[in-house]
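W.,

You were right to be curious about this one. When I first looked at the sequence I had no strong expectations either way, so I just let the prediction run and decided to look at it fresh. Below is the sequence, 321 residues in total, followed by the output.
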Amino acid sequence: MDDGSAGKPGRTGEIMVKAPAKINLTLDITGTREDGYHLLKMVMQTVSLYDELEIRKNSSGKVTLSSNRHFVKKLPAKDNLVYKAAVKMQELCPEGTGFDIKLRKNIPSEAGLAGGSADCAAALKGINQLMGLGLSEAELADIGVKFGADVPFCVYGGTKLCEGIGEKITPLNDLAGIPVLIVKPKKGMSTEEVYSDYDREDDIEHPDNEAMLDIIAEIDANSAAAEEDDYTNAEITDHVYDICRYIGNVLETVVIPELPIIGEIKENLENYGALGSLMSGSGSAVYGLFDSVEAMLFAEHEMKRIYKDCKIYSCMTVNEN
């Protein structure tokens, strides 16, 4: 499977880059910084739902941005993370270097799937490769955190433990190969609104991050033992049940009462074969994890029958490097 991690060179001075979405296997809030930012501890995973960026170098010294999505077109360029990333990378390029960027959006907005952060990270990585700047992922992540807490994870991708405001990244063992079905209801809530509601909540159920980390470590041990027997990533699906025992998102506590359809979607995903389901990030997208592609496709058919106003995506967990 193409993981979309590498840019695809076109003609001279042009590159195509994929920007993968993410899901949260866990999301917990562990405190608040003095500046008001929430401290997080979460396990994040990239999936094979992609935006696409076409980046073309120009000699005008200007950055232009176009998109297939109306909401992107309406947003002033100076406020778009892709534009901001390109302008920042200009500082490292020869004087007079500009970029024409075409952004094809597939990841829905207000979904908790980090679409904007993924696009920003892809712009950083694409320009780095296009211009031969030679920056490491760590250096790109340091640049990216200035634009958003999810951007460093999106630079690295794969399976990671993210802490702090999201900028502290710890690599975890590869969980590529799990079938995922994402259901995005029409209505959503802003991230600011969700965290504001959380701050007023007293009765919070926190996910067990340590148990999730133990499960992921155990999967790696099993995988290493199986490699000599022609181990394939498909066998990771044997462990989906264990992973699903510990998926959890502290923000569901405040979002589901405001958007009951999220709880309904979770229940129906499991009714139609998901071994576990969870809201991703601050919502409103919900995903289900399956132990086979066939089970996922059956659930996709049923969910499309029930939720005609929802956006539904079938994909896989992928390892982005």
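Here's what jumped out at me. Residues 1-6, 224-232 have pLDDT under 50 and may be disordered. And, maybe more interesting for your project: Residues 29 and 132 are 38 Å apart (CA to CA).

Coffee later to discuss?

I.
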